[in-house]
Amino acid sequence: FIDVDTNLYMAIAELLPRFTVPFFFGVAGYYYIGSLLQGKKVFGKQMKGLLTVYIAWTLIYYLASFAIKVVLGDADIWTFLVERVVNFFTIGSYTHMWYMVALIYAVILVTLAHKLGGEKGIKTVTILGILMAVICALGCMYYPFGSQIPVLKEFFDYEHFMMVTYWFGMGVPYFTLGYFVIKEESSPKPWSSKKVWTL
Questions:
Q1: What does the alpha-carbon distance between residue 90 and residue 93 come to, in Å, rounded to a whole number?
Q2: Mean pLDDT of the 24-30 span
Q3: What is the band of 139 on the pLDDT scale with cuts at 50, 70, 90?
Q4: Tens-place pLDDT, residues 74-105
Q5: What is the chain written as a DSSP string?
Q6: What's the CA dihedral at 101, 103, 108, 114 to 10 degrees?
Q7: 140-147, long-range: CB within 8 Å, 24+ apart, which pairs?
Q8: In whole angstroms, what is the distance from residue 68 CA to residue 72 CA?
Q9: Is the CB of residue 32 less than 8 Å from the CB of residue 107?
Q10: Which residue has the higher pLDDT, 4 or 28?
Q11: HEC readout, 80-129
């Protein structure tokens, strides 16, 4: 829509994704963390589902990029393969697939936290996730301000800062937002015992 209307383009390309990805992580976290807190053994099933989708789309993208870069282009096959394997485990097999890697690592981290500390472990990861989201935001949207903080500037200028942001500045914090929703649902509401007046 960039050729149609600048405002429409900004709304669709820049504004909506700012809500949809966090919402995606939050919903996934809500159901997964909820299952963990109910004592269900869901890790294997969850990982199988995530990896099936991720690997299927990775194969599609890798076959297409192999044809373009190696067969039709002049890229070296070994460089291509090494780069793709590294990307699969780090920044995502394709540019927009970063969220799958972040989601997989969030599931692993939350599961480990639950194994080691139960609900308290999940709560700790949630609090640390919020802290990391704030720090990573200072290195992205608020870089002019964040770069003034000497220790953080080194982190923000780190070669793999965006990868860390994907995993711990977005994936984990938004995934653990599901925990807050669960806690909100289970907390008593001050109005629940009062009489509701109707006209």
A1: 8
A2: 94
A3: confident
A4: 778 888 889 889 999 999 988 888 999 999 99
A5: -TTT-HHHHIIIIIIHHHHHHHHHHHHHHHHHHHHHHTT---HHHHHHHHHHHHHHHHHHHHHHHHIIIIISS---HHHHHHHHHHHHHTT-SSGGGHHHHHHHHHHHHHHHHHHHHHHHHHHHHHHHHHHHHHHHHHHTTTHHHHTTSHHHHHHHTSTTHHHHIIIIIIIHHHHHHHHHHHHHHHSPPTTTTSPPP--
A6: 160
A7: 140/165, 140/169
A8: 5
A9: yes
A10: 28
A11: HHHHHHHHHHCCCCCHHHHHHHHHHHHHHHHHHHHHHHHHHHHHHHHHHH
Report the distance separating Cα 151 and Cα 87, nearest Å: 28
- Cα–Cα nearest to 23, from 142, 177, 140: 177
* Over residues 29-41, mean pLDDT: 94
Q: How far, in Å, CA of 86 to CA of 31, rounded?
A: 30
User: How confident is the model over 153-178, as pLDDT tens digits?
Assistant: 888 888 888 888 889 889 999 999 98
Amino acid at 19: F
- 26, 178 in Cβ contact below 8 A? yes
Tokens coding 94: 């394709």
Give the CA dihedral 21, 27, 31, 33, nearest 10 degrees: 60
Nearest to 106 by CA among 54, 151, 169: 169
Q: Which residue has the higher pLDDT, 73 or 133?
A: 133
pLDDT for position 11: 77
